[in-house]
Amino acid sequence: MTFTDEDIAILKSSLAAHGQEHLLAHWEDLSSDQKDDLYRDIQSIDFTNHLKSFKRCMQKELSAPGKEDYLKPLPPDACESVFISNKINEKWTNRGLKEISEGKVALLLMAGGQGTRLGVPYPKGMYNVGLQSGKCLYQLQAERVRKQEQLAAEMYGSSKAIRWYIMTSEHTKKATVDYFKSNGWFGLSEENIIFFEQEMIPCLSLDGKVIMDSKFSIARAPGGNGDLYRSMGNEGVLQDMLKKGVRSVHCYCVDNILNKVPDPLFIGCCLDRQSDCGAKVVSKAYPTEAVGVICECNGTWKVVEYSEISKETANMVDSEGKLLFSQGNICNHYFTTSFLTKVIEGKESQLIHHVARKKIPTINSSGERVLPTEINGIKMEKFVFDVFQFSEKFTVLEVARNEEFSPLKNPPGAPKCSPQTCLEDLSNQHKRWIIRAGGTFKNEGLCEISPLVSCTGENLEDLVKDKFFSLPLHLEVTHKNGYHNGHTGTNGLHSKL
What we know:
By secondary structure, the protein is an alpha/beta fold. Helix content is 30%, strand content 21%. The chain has 14 helices and 25 strands. It has helices at 5-17, 32-43, 47-62, 86-101, 137-156, 173-182, 228-234, 237-243, 264-272, 311-314, 337-347, 401-404, 419-436, 461-464; strands at residues 71-72, 79-81, 105-110, 163-168, 193-197, 200-202, 204-205, 212-214, 217-218, 220-222, 248-253, 277-283, 293-297, 300-304, 327-336, 354-358, 362-363, 369-370, 377-381, 394-398, 440-441, 447-449, 468-469, 473-478, 492-496. An eight-stranded mixed beta sheet has the order 2-20-12-15-11-3-4-5, with helices on both faces. The protein has a three-stranded antiparallel beta sheet with strand order 1-13-14, with no helix packed on it.
């Protein structure tokens, strides 16, 4: 690209109007290609709105300390629980399966995170926690999708495919798409897996200056999982959902190994209550557990981070001695497409970014890239649950922690949220399923049941009742259709002892 003096003059004038003249400090040192890169990088930024968002989120941070005064526990009429009635759970499950059978269900996966914290150079969804099958998080989820389609077809005679929308980031999209492709889409149809990318937004200094990553590039970071809504609009995801007749959307994060996806019980619960928005919660293990809490705030629904709640508030109890603020958020949500339309087309601009203060690599006055030793800037993030405030009929469903929540956050060897704890939690879950179905174990060890055998512990009686099993145990379905799942053989059940 050839720049005229007028082009540069206009660019400098625009930057000066927003206090960002420093972005061209090393312009004369750049090659033609580097100037082209920087020019396009700068032109892609909407400085007016970006700096407006910066001021709003900084003001919000300053006004935060007094917010506990108007936090209220969720009203009982907004809360449901899987612990109340097996009959109601069955009713909800059947209704959710009907929704699946009619092709009205989509999954919305937030998978923009890299595996850096785990110590691996690839997306977190590709991580294997040590399962006997060698399956990664992506494969477990794909097989759960296949099984729910099968269960819906068995109950209602036929079933349409579940659309799976996967939000990646600049750092994870290519690796994720290539991985799905190289694994044959894990037995799903390629046309029903839709990848889209969340936007990378500029990082800012504490005084609102855009941070340079190099002489010719701007430091950027993902805008948080709440950037989901803008990305859905920009990438045509919402339009595709509406075109395909989707009504119920189950949204979740990639790192929870116990994710029930999609969960017909959760979907059926929200449909039964005619809710436009819903969230799964687990009861906090102890008052100060480091999880966000869903509560009522000024007449709307809100997730308050654990760091934002004082110890005194966290320990408050009701007349029966139960915690007032006990609904721990597990980032597992339900949306109707009509609700998403309302958010994306009219409410998204009202969302205020959250401030994440970070040590952000930048350049010094000589243009050399340096790693700061102290916090020098912020990354602005929106959270997926920020839209709860727009719900007209909100539902919170309490679920069992040991059945639905075991996130992978920390590297091997960490005492919690590590590959080892995830492996143990999944193994213990599968042992409970076998015991509940009438099976018995002879010894201690790992247990793994493929989602293609049983997705939530269903239909195991004929396989395990009155039988004794030695551990480790691995129950797997094998196929002749070319889909590789670690085993070969004829159709049927494969038991690996």
